[in-house]
Amino acid sequence: SQQGEEDPQALSIQEGENATMNCSYKTSINNLQWYRQNSGRGLVHLILIRSNEREKHSGRLRVTLDTSKKSSSLLITASRAADTASYFCALEMIGAGSYQLTFGKGTKLSVIP
Amino acid sequence: AAGVIQSPRHLIKEKRETATLKCYPIPRHDTVYWYQQGPGQDPQFLISFYEKMQSDKGSIPDRFSAQQFSDYHSELNMSSLELGDSALYFCASSLEAEETQYFGPGTRLLVL
User: For residue A91, what are the β-bridge partners?
Assistant: First the structure.
């Protein structure tokens, strides 16, 4: 499969702890994006990291990309109960038509107050 | 800021019926994407349009068709609905020159 594989599938942490989610993939990419989805709701774009970038920050989010290992991680620091959601990595693959995204299976994060 | 608008938000249909989902992209966005997300699944790319022309096609069944109109809104037409078509259907829009896709709230389709 060319889609991203995320781990863990589910993660439960206490409020204030850090949460790390990983995404591995098999093909070459233009960029990798992380999205958040509250249960049954729309997808919210969090951050985009291009293939020539190694790390990006946005608020409490830190994303890394290792193209040699074909993997990315999303770190949420000082988690809050409101961070409870599913997090998806989405790949924009080289050679794919338009900018279609191929999503991973997602990590379901639960932050316990 | 204006977001992607999808209508209807919820739709219930019987098997073999037809359904039309509508998507209104963010103003000035010229590219529209459709995704299908089954229960507990990740979103799957269906089809995309750039400047009213189909730009890419994914796992869209032959029973489905879509188009983008002159005002850039898009419609996904689904015929001969099957139980397995029950899903969340997302529309996303972007500027062709930019990579970030902004998703709408989705249309939840239930086929009985």
Answer: A32, A102
